[in-house]
Specification:
The chain is about 35% helix and about 20% strand. The protein is α/β, with parallel strands linked by helices. The model has no long low-confidence stretch (mean pLDDT about 95).
Length: about 200
């Protein structure tokens, strides 16, 4: 049975940013879309509202491309090969594209990230500890990337992890399903409705 102390609990929205989801974002302009990913905001919104009503926290992570001299972003080699359409202005700090999508705003804590895990070279752990949080409920994209890496890093830091089986998505159903199965060894797995009900009880 799911039980939560709301003041020590956060819904972690992993990379639900305009550049990934909005039609005018970097991925939308490049024709890179997924029905499962596009459906996430509407599925996560009732849970986000339940977390807020219960007195919990909303934490959003923001994949970020740091602009270099002249504005060209620093992009890792593997990402450049995977997503050659990324360029100047995409996922830039403070930009429309880097921001959390409007439907899920506002977040209480916003964390810039430069790799799959939001803990890597960031203020994530410091901010969570300062807020007194020990339980992290994970939703967002992609299940086998940012979600999995951040959840695993939370686990080794002794945070309690709850993974939303229907609140995450990947670019393939197979990648999503295999990741949920793998992560179930280190996290509790529940649906958005189940967690919302537990927070409301």
């Amino acid at each position: 049975m799911l039980n939560f102390a709301p003041d020590r609990t956060a819904l972690v929205l992993v990379d639900l940013q305009n550049d990934f989801l909005h039609p005018e974002g970097a991925y939308g302009r490049a024709g890179q879309s997924s029905a499962a990913i596009a459906a996430l905001p509407a599925r996560l919104l009732p849970l986000a509202e339940a977390v807020r009503r219960a007195g919990g926290w909303i934490v959003s992570t923001h994949f970020t491309l740091i602009p270099g001299k002249g504005g060209a972003p620093f992009i890792s080699e593997h990402l450049q090969k995977l997503r050659p359409f990324l360029g100047p202005g995409d996922f830039a700090p403070g930009s429309f594209g880097q921001a959390l999508i409007d439907a899920l705003q506002p977040a209480d804590i916003m964390i810039e990230k430069i790799a799959f895990s939001a803990f890597y070279q960031s203020r994530m752990e410091w901010a969570l500890r300062r807020a007194g949080l020990d339980t992290l409920i994970f939703g967002g994209i992609v299940t086998n990337g940012g979600v999995a890496s951040t959840l695993r890093d939370a686990h080794v830091r002794d945070f309690r992890g709850v993974l939303l089986s229907d609140g995450c998505a990947a670019f393939s159903a197979e990648a999503h399903a295999s990741s949920i199965a793998s992560l179930s060894t280190i996290a509790e797995v529940a649906t958005c409705d189940e967690v919302a009900a537990a927070l409301s009880s």
